[in-house]
């Protein structure tokens, strides 16, 4: 339940902030939100052995993201499953702590943006350049690290009944 | 043995997601009409939730019972926000008087497309308000885009700043003697100006000339204001001219739009 609540919270906050920040190419601020992607990093803490539910959650979360913000039905559904796979791997092999949470966040954002831009480039849907991609990534790091730190603290001190795995 | 099995399972999940990802992209982009009905239904539900989530923020501007004890800064911000909103609505009303051949449909922006590359916005009016695909979307400051997807209660607008090869607008540059036609072909990130190419080198275009839609190509009717000529350049072979157009619309700060529906 808490996982669904936090997913929805991240999703809606993502959209609300995007509505009030410049979003055109060349006008982005250094505080572009990608809270939904950041939340995926913490999603494994809500699931222990129920892998199917974990990936289903990621898929449905991505579907909602598409319906709310992108109009690309199923696209983020599948993309979020890949990101969830990556988040699970990070969770297993990397000890997330307050001072190092920025590293996996950056990794996830770079992976997400590169994969997204790569697919658009591959299908010639919109012109994608490396400098544009770099611009987008650099402008998406700062605010999302702050959000990730907030989520980390919230989950660290969240009573055990709301989550399945311990946050270091 | 167990580890191997798990690894295999993970690989299948990963591959499966990859296949779904690619096929969904094809479905979303190329075969949209076939999945349209499902999308429309789900989209309406999503937009209802989105509208509810945005309500406290949009309602902030119309807040009337502001306590006198609130700080001056908050009060000042609310006032300036209200003034701005009133001005924006006044401009839209003024514009309606000049567009008599159209039935204007006013809409509020619900959300912006989160994917940076597409340059689209979602408005709160759809099929139920008479909106159809390819209708022109304007503000008081001119053309901003066209309708690309319509569901019952919301529509997607592609902005003219989008880098889309399939979204070209035929324009007319009004000079002293004759109208010159060209194609609006993109947005220059560095200068923040719209670019138009394919103009005969011999034409007499001056800085400050007005740019309108030409009506050619049957996408938009003629006469919708776009902007004014800001800069003129000859192309590298000196065969044609490229002009840069200043639009007076701040695309990062649009809250209300008008969709132009041709009166039947």
What keyword list fits this structure?
heterodimer; B: alpha+beta; Thrombin, subunit H; six-stranded antiparallel β-barrel; 3 helices; globular
H and E string of chain A: HHHHHHH
Q: What's the quaternary structure here?
A: heterodimer
Low-confidence stretches of chain A: none
What's the CATH class of the largest domain in chain B, please? Mainly Beta
Q: How many extended strands of chain A?
A: 0
Strand pairing plus helix content of chain A: what structural class?
A: mainly alpha
Q: Kindly estimate the percentage of residues of chain A that lie in beta strands according to DSSP.
A: under 5%
**Termini separation of chain A (Å)?**
22 Å
Strand order of the largest sheet of chain B: 1-2-5-4-3-12
How many helices of chain A? The count is: 7
The percent of residues in helical segments of chain B reads 25-40%
Under the CATH scheme, the architecture of the largest domain in chain B is Beta Barrel
Helical fraction of chain A equals 55-70%
How would the global form of chain A be characterised? globular
Bulk shape of chain B: globular
Mean pLDDT of chain B: 76
Report on the biggest sheet of chain B. Answer: 6 strands, antiparallel, barrel
Spatial extent as radius of gyration of chain A: 15 Å
């Amino acid at each position: 339940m808490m996982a669904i609540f936090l997913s929805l919270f991240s999703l809606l906050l993502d959209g609300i902030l995007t509505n009030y920040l410049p979003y055109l190419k060349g006008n982005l601020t250094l505080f572009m939100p990608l809270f939904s992607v950041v939340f995926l990093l913490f999603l494994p803490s809500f699931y222990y052995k129920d892998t199917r539910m974990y990936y289903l959650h990621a898929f449905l979360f991505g579907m909602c993201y598409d319906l709310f913000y992108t109009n690309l039905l199923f696209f983020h559904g599948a993309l979020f499953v890949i990101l969830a796979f990556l988040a699970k791997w990070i969770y297993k092999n990397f000890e997330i702590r307050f001072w190092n949470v920025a590293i996996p966040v950056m990794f996830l954002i770079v992976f997400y943006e590169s994969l997204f831009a790569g697919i658009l480039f591959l299908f010639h849907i919109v012109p994608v350049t490396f400098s544009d991609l770099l611009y987008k990534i650099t402008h998406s790091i700062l605010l999302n690290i702050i959000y990730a730190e907030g989520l980390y603290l919230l989950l660290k001190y969240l009573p055990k009944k709301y989550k399945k795995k311990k946050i270091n | 043995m167990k580890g191997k099995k798990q690894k295999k399972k993970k690989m299948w999940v990963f591959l499966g997601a990859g296949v779904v990802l690619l096929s969904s992209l094809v479905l979303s982009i190329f075969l949209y009409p076939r999945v349209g009905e499902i999308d429309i239904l789900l989209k309406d539900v999503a937009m209802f939730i989105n509208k509810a989530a945005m309500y406290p923020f949009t309602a902030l501007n119309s807040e009337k019972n502001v306590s006198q004890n609130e700080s001056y800064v908050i009060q000042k911000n609310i006032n300036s926000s209200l003034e701005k909103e009133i001005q924006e609505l006044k401009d839209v009303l003024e514009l309606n008087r000049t567009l008599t051949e159209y039935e204007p449909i006013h809409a509020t922006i619900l959300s912006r497309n989160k994917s940076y590359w597409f340059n689209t916005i979602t408005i709160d009016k759809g099929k139920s308000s008479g909106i159809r695909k390819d209708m022109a979307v304007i503000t008081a400051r001119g053309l901003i885009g066209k309708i690309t997807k319509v569901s019952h209660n919301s529509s997607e607008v592609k902005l003219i700043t989008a880098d889309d090869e399939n979204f070209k607008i035929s324009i007319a540059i009004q000079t002293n003697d004759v109208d010159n036609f060209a194609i609006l072909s993109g947005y220059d990130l560095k200068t923040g100006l719209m670019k138009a190419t394919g103009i005969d080198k011999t034409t007499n275009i001056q800085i400050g000339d007005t740019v309108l839609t030409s009506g050619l190509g049957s996408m938009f009717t003629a006469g919708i204001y776009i902007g004014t000529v800001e800069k003129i350049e000859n192309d590298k072979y000196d065969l044609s001219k490229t002009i840069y157009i200043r639009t007076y619309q701040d695309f990062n700060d649009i809250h209300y739009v008008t969709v132009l529906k041709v009166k039947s």
